[in-house]
Amino acid sequence: MKTFSTNKLFSIVPNFLSKEIEDFWMAASIEELTAHFVYINVANIFQNLGFFGAQKYFEGESTEELKHYFIVRDYVNDRGGLLSTPETKKVLISVSTIEEGLDVALKLETELLTFYEKGYRLCSDMNDFASTERLHEFIRIQRESIGEISDLQARYNRTGNSPAAILEFDEYLGEK
Ligand SMILES: [Fe+2]
Fold first, then answer.
1. What is the CA(148)–ligand 1 centre distance, in A?
2. Total-model pTM
3. 86-132 pLDDT per residue, tens
4. pLDDT tens per residue across span 3-36
5. Closest-CA residue to 53 (of 162, 129, 143, 152)
6. Cα 34 to averaged position of ligand 1 atoms, centre (Å)
7. At what angle do helices 19-49 and 129-157 cross, to 10 degrees?
8. Which end of the chain has a smaller Cβ tally under 10 Å, C or N?
9. CA 166 to CA 159: how far, in whole Å?
10. Is residue 7 part of a domain?
11. Residue 151 sits in a domain of what CATH number?
């Protein structure tokens, strides 16, 4: 458990995170872990539905989110901070088709982009340029995720809801 005040240290050692920005990165870690668990849950639902390609795809996404959590953890550590063990947010997941799974992913990734953009403004206003530099990567990750999911939705729409075409799409997802 941390026993020092980051604000006090920030005034002595410029590398330390200010309290406001440490709180932002703490919130980022919760967002990433929440995304990790959401994708695990979506993958489990697809396993249950027999869409094993979608299961594999969402498991992969879940692993990516955990990696993002560790990027946040490492960054906070580099800046002399310590992430406490966060509680993830409670998210109700109701998915019964691949189309709905992609909708969940798009909403999640879009909200994360907005979250990181707000964080960028905060870090920029507070002249924490090391954090803005770190945030470039997170904003890029979100832009690419949104682009990929949008492409998948376009491809899914071409199935015309034909069961055979949806199964083929499921296989395609599993190979991504
Ligand atoms: Fe992420």
1. 14
2. 0.88
3. 777 787 788 999 999 999 999 999 999 999 999 999 999 999 999 99
4. 455 555 555 555 789 999 999 999 999 999 999 9
5. 152
6. 9
7. 20
8. N
9. 6
10. no
11. 1.20.1260.10
